[in-house]
């Protein structure tokens, strides 16, 4: 195993980013079961829902009901995605344990995603961070489209660092970078992470990758090598952004677990006696949720190929 200082944590995002772009609307009970299975496999932090307008993201219309169904789950930190102050108010009232707020690095996607440009989103995040801090709510800011925009094209690293500088002024508990449409490569990851670390040597860093062009897993390793300690992933590799044409699934949690373990990178678990996250249980969950969504198979590979060597 690696040194404990390099311990990596996985945020399971299948209940939010994994589901939000799927055409088949799932029952609330199925979403709750997805979170419960993830926790049982050893995952601690789960992005359980988003507080968005139901007419724009109908899959998230039952956010409060999902959270109510998870109130008794021990060892779970329930994350809610918020886009504005109203979203924060809903997250606080619904019982989230932490929130993730979004600031889009490109104006093109920012306007289509939230109706305002990047500068306005940075200003809005400052208010969200202040009020969340006052309420005792841990807050992550995710810089979306940090590697490229479906509308504006290339997003220069300098632009991402300018946005990072703005959100860091608000004092987030964690900063995440997101390859929203899956165009990034490891060299970009290294440049962005190194640049953010130069701006703030202490803030925890998180990364969110899509595997649209088969670079997601390479990017995850590059992120860890550069100092990122938290990685988003989705059981089954399901997911995408409804406002980003061409976006496909997140990196699969089970495939990421295989990659990290075989690379001797330790993953934080909430299982008894520090037992590792059960990758095969996650793979079974990925297969199950793909079936619930009516997909021919889960995009992730571990559920099909199995572990090596065989257990």
Automatic annotation (TrEMBL):
Residues 8-275 form the Pyruvate carboxyltransferase domain. The keyword Lyase applies. Coiled coil: none annotated. NCBIfam families: PRK05692.1. Keywords: Lyase, Metal-binding. It holds the Pfam family HMGL-like. GO terms for molecular function: hydroxymethylglutaryl-CoA lyase activity; metal ion binding. Signal peptide: none annotated. This is Hydroxymethylglutaryl-CoA lyase. PANTHER family: HYDROXYMETHYLGLUTARYL-COA LYASE (PTHR42738:SF7). One of its GO terms (biological process) is L-leucine catabolic process. It comes from Nocardioides faecalis. CDD domains: DRE_TIM_HMGL. Belongs to the HMG-CoA lyase family.
